Amino acid sequence: MTIAYFDCFSGIAGDMILGALIDVGVDVTFLKNELKKLPLTGYDISVKSVECNHIAAVDVTVAVTEDQHHRSLSDIIDLLKRSTLDPKVKKQSQNIFYNLGKAEAKIHSIDVEKVHFHEVGAVDSIIDVVGSVIGITQLGIEKIYCSPLPFGHGFVSCDHGLLPLPAPATVELLKGIPVYSVDRKQELVTPTGAAIIATLVENFGEMPPMKISKIGYGSGKIPSEYPNVLRVFLGDLAQKRKNKTTKEKTGKNNKTTDSM
Fold first, then answer.
1. Where are the domains of the chain?
2. Which residues contact 250 (CB under 8 A, 6 or more apart)?
3. 220: pLDDT confidence band, cut at 50, 70 and 90?
4. How far apart (Å, rounded) are the C-alpha atoms in residues 260 and 245?
5. Distance between CA 130 and CA 213 in Å, rounded?
6. DSSP per-residue codes, 199-218
7. What is the pLDDT of residues 99-140, one digit of tens each?
8. Strand blocks (E) in the chain
9. I need a labelling partner for 253 at 20 to 30 A (CA). Which of 13, 135, 137, 241 fits?
């Protein structure tokens, strides 16, 4: 079984996920061609190799080239439905945005259909979400594991004004998922990153026994004294060794005794 382990020692965001997946083998040309199946224009994707604290990583930047309007959850779901993407990619992308919409609705005490995605509805976030699902599908990843998630502190500015870190939507999405605090005054886990992993990851905790085939690093955007990267391990789930049963051991010992 092909699995991936997301090692989030410096947090997680949509662009970091996409960068790490490209670093472990997602073909950029294939990715861009697949994203063209979305009825979405006015953006450009650049992928480049960077170095974060002496660690080679992949940086993905989505530049908006045309004015974009805020989108409701229904707008985004409709956009995905009208695309010619693989049905599995469509469904998983819809689930990610729906979970994000539910979190925002809970925070603002409104109906989920009335949620308007400001930052999240921007083109770059749509590309991060759909691109990540495309990458996971292309790599044939059957199961995703993830480390506990670090929370920074402070405040972040958005369309709603100043919000505490971690952002309320992020915390809502990560209920029931192991987290811990670190002394870093910055946003380490974004709502988009939280929505992706909360929807797609099956197990959180230590790395499972696995045979690692590739390791990828996706770069974050905020300069830091720490390596601001997401590390993704790709490989096969290792088979657990089966201990011989007492009966088997006894039988072997009896055979030895009989031959003496």
1. 2-258
2. none
3. very high
4. 24
5. 25
6. HH--EESSPPSEEEEEEEEE
7. 999 999 998 899 888 887 765 558 888 999 999 999 999 999
8. 2-7, 43-52, 55-64, 71-72, 116-117, 143-146, 149-151, 155-158, 161-164, 179-181, 203-204, 210-219, 229-237
9. 241
